[in-house]
Design a protein that fits this description.
- With 427 residues, the protein is α/β, with parallel strands linked by helices.
- It contains 12 helices and 20 strands.
- 49% of the residues are buried.
- Bound molecules: guanosine-5'-diphosphate, 6-O-phosphoryl inosine monophosphate and magnesium ion (MG).
Length: 427
């Protein structure tokens, strides 16, 4: 049994952290393959609540080795503060492995993220301001700094020089900011090297050897399908590939090794930051979803935009990721509505469209076509099996499954590990 990918099927915040943590006890490795500390995963274990940003959610499962793959961008200061926070709460983090090929989010990448967003004004993306986009831009531009560079001062200095050459011109001449000194950056980065050293590994080799030994490896996506740089609502996306293919490139594991791709799907929809969102609500229903679902960002504290479930998006996620299963989360949040609208198609300039339009213009014009499903009022948070759910909740799940194109193998009825209905086993 081998490699599973667990990823967001919408715009992020679907409950990936909880789902990963739930499986953490049964898997040997949990691997982040893209993104960085733009992610915000809340995991509730008993009466303890953890907010994770960069670390894989498997860090909370004692038997599991957490891995930060080559496709991730790492801000060492954030990494250390996250590790310190967990250590203070008694969590053992010593097994963590970090790819030497992962790129470092440098202080100037964070600066560039902030100034470019400010410069864009009302056209801004609404990034998390963590330096994610500029770090991936440097990687693709071949002026990035990798974890392994911290162990060769001369190479590090040359690389920082190369990276700052153009950036300092831009910062001083275009953005009216002070230039950033090479030595200062080098000194700061070298200061992280010693503490980072025990974690640095050839994670590609480690993971492939583990798979050869039939160990179970879980790849945990950050963000979601619609935030993917290639398959999302570009340009209102993040700068990496949260979709399933990203697990292969971001961890160095071949696609033939992946046996299961699980899409985490919220029973309604949310989005943070700018960009199109056909089912977005601006009324008291949207406010109620936000309040009942606790829809406030874990990373930036921004209120999440809320809307009804969108089956067009779910079908798209099934297709671009080759999903084998869905994990439907937050069904409990929908308790109490007499009727629940579900978007089954879009109307675009008078036409009915069943699949996600590839044209940005069309997507901006998409209006949801709703089907009304009967709601339920019974508390479902204690449900342990599908049969425990009220008939209308069962019908809601079945309808979503039918429309979305993959079986719903688990249902979340609360934030806790045990507030989950398992229908088909993932392992
Ligand atoms: P992630 O970024 O995909 O890991 O998701 P977040 O952690 O940002 O947001 C999901 C939120 O929903 C977290 O606060 C979770 O504790 C919570 N959550 C996850 N699953 C469920 C569920 O089934 N029901 C409820 N009520 N909350 C859930
Ligand atoms: P998790 O892992 C929701 C959004 C930002 C912004 C866009 C680009 O918790 O699901 P970036 O800083 O990545 O360049 O911002 O992507 N975004 C997220 N939205 N959940 C996330 O992560 C996100 N990570 C980035 O709000 O719109
Ligand atoms: Mg989140």
């Amino acid at each position: 049994m081998p490699a599973l990918v667990l990823l967001g099927a919408q715009w992020g915040d679907e409950g990936k952290g909880k789902a990963t943590d739930l499986l953490g006890g049964s898997v040997d490795y949990v691997v982040r393959y893209q993104g960085g500390n733009n992610a915000g995963h809340t995991v509730v274990v008993g009466d303890q609540k953890y907010a994770l940003h960069l670390l894989p959610s498997g860090i909370l499962s004692p038997g599991c080795t957490p891995v930060i793959g080559n496709g991730v961008v790492v801000d060492p200061s954030v990494l250390f503060s996250e590790l310190n926070g967990l250590n203070e709460r008694g969590v053992d983090t010593s097994k963590l492995l970090i790819s030497g090929n992962a790129h470092i989010i440098t202080p100037y990448n964070v600066t560039v993220d902030k100034v470019t967003e400010r410069f864009l004004g009302k056209r801004k993306i609404g990034t998390t301001g963590r330096g994610i986009g500029p770090t991936y831009a440097d990687k693709i531009n071949r002026v990035g700094i990798r974890v392994q560079d911290l162990y060769d001062e001369s190479i590090l200095t040359q690389k920082v020089e190369a990276a700052l050459d153009v950036k300092n011109q831009m910062l001083t001449k275009l953005y009216n900011r002070r230039a950033i000194a090479v030595e200062q950056v080098v000194e700061e980065l070298l200061g992280y090297a010693e503490r980072l050293a025990p974690y640095v590994a050839d994670t590609v080799l480690v993971l492939n050897q583990a798979l050869d030994e039939d160990k179970v490896v879980l790849f945990e996506g950050g963000q979601g399908t619609l935030l993917d740089i290639d398959h999302g609502t570009y340009p209102f996306v993040t700068s990496s590939n949260p979709t399933a293919g990203g697990a292969c490139t971001g961890a160095g594991v071949g696609p033939t090794k992946i046996s299961r791709v699980i899409g985490i799907l919220k029973a309604y929809t949310t989005r943070v930051g700018a960009g199109p969102f056909p089912t977005e609500l601006f009324d008291e229903d949207g406010e109620a979803l936000r309040r009942i679902g606790g829809e406030r960002g874990v990373t930036t504290g921004r209120d999440r935009r809320c809307g009804w479930f969108d089956a067009v998006i779910a079908r798209y996620a099934t297709r671009v990721n080759g999903l084998t299963d869905f994990f439907l989360t937050k069904l409990d949040v929908l308790t109490g509505w007499e009727q629940i609208p579900v978007c089954v198609a879009y109307e675009i300039d008078g036409r009915r469209v069943e699949e996600l339009p590839y044209s940005q213009t069309d997507f901006h014009h998409a209006k949801p076509v709703y089907e009304m499903l009967p709601g339920w009022s019974e508390d479902i948070s204690k449900a342990k099996s599908f049969a425990d759910l009220p008939k209308n909740a069962q019908a809601y799940v079945k309808a979503l499954e039918e429309m979305s194109g993959a079986p719903i193998s688990a249902i979340g009825v609360g934030p806790g590990r045990d507030e989950t209905i398992e229908i088909n086993s993932f392992l």
